[in-house]
Amino acid sequence: MEHFQCHWTSEPGGPVPLPTGPWVGHHFEECEFEGLDLTGFDCRNARFEKCTFRGCILENIRLTGTRLHGVRFEKCSLPGLRWSTLDTTMVDFTMVDCRAPLGDWEEMDLQGVQFRTTDLSGGNFHGSDARKTGWTGCRLRNAIFDRTDLRDSDFRGATDWSINPAENRLRGARFDAADLTGLVQSLGILLD
């Protein structure tokens, strides 16, 4: 296992070259990845601690057994990833201004994860524990919330969401009072 503490950008000639893949079992601590295209990288069993990904493309990456602790994704493209394969003993991250549609988050422990102004359209959150999760300003079009624990979560500013209160746990969840349409759609109630 290799250990790294570096800042990598898309500009050539940095002090330390970006390690070539696969990154299986590598340990990245306080690293910054900026403007990189990491499409297809194999990150199985890698560990990322206090790292930041800014403006990166992370498509078709393998996350099986990967640990994320204190990781921040900003303005990244992360479509269709199987987040549910992460090592769930260490899942602590924030996603801000990202595009992460069609992600598989099924039956994950997402307690306290923060999604902000991120497109999570079509994401599958079936059976996840998303207590105290922040969804502020996120786009949640066609996201699946089924048997999802959303207690004390924050949906203020989120758009295009639909959550059936009979199928999910919602006690203490916060919503915009002016937009409760997503809570009553499944009940056949129309709001004007």
Structural features, described:
The protein is elongated, with a radius of gyration of 17 Å. It has one helix at residues 181-184; strands at 3-4, 7-9, 27-29, 32-34, 47-49, 52-54, 67-74, 91-96, 114-116. The termini are far apart. Strands 1, 2, 3, 4, 5, 6, 7, 8 and 9 form a nine-stranded parallel sheet that branches. It is built from one helix and nine strands, in the order βββββββββα. The longest helix has 4 residues, at 181-184. The chain folds into two domains: 1-11 and 21-77 and 88-97, E3 ubiquitin-protein ligase SopA (Pectate Lyase C-like, 3 Solenoid); 101-192, E3 ubiquitin-protein ligase SopA (Pectate Lyase C-like, 3 Solenoid), CATH 2.160.20. The chain has 192 residues and is mainly β.
Provide a quick synopsis of the model:
This protein is an all-beta fold and 192 residues long. The protein has one helix at 181-184; strands at residues 3-4, 7-9, 27-29, 32-34, 47-49, 52-54, 67-74, 91-96, 114-116. The chain folds into two domains: 1-11 and 21-77 and 88-97, Pectate Lyase C-like; 101-192, Pectate Lyase C-like (3 Solenoid).
Which helices and strands, and how do they pair?
Blueprint: E1 3-4, E2 7-9, E3 27-29, E4 32-34, E5 47-49, E6 52-54, E7 67-74, E8 91-96, E9 114-116, H1 181-184
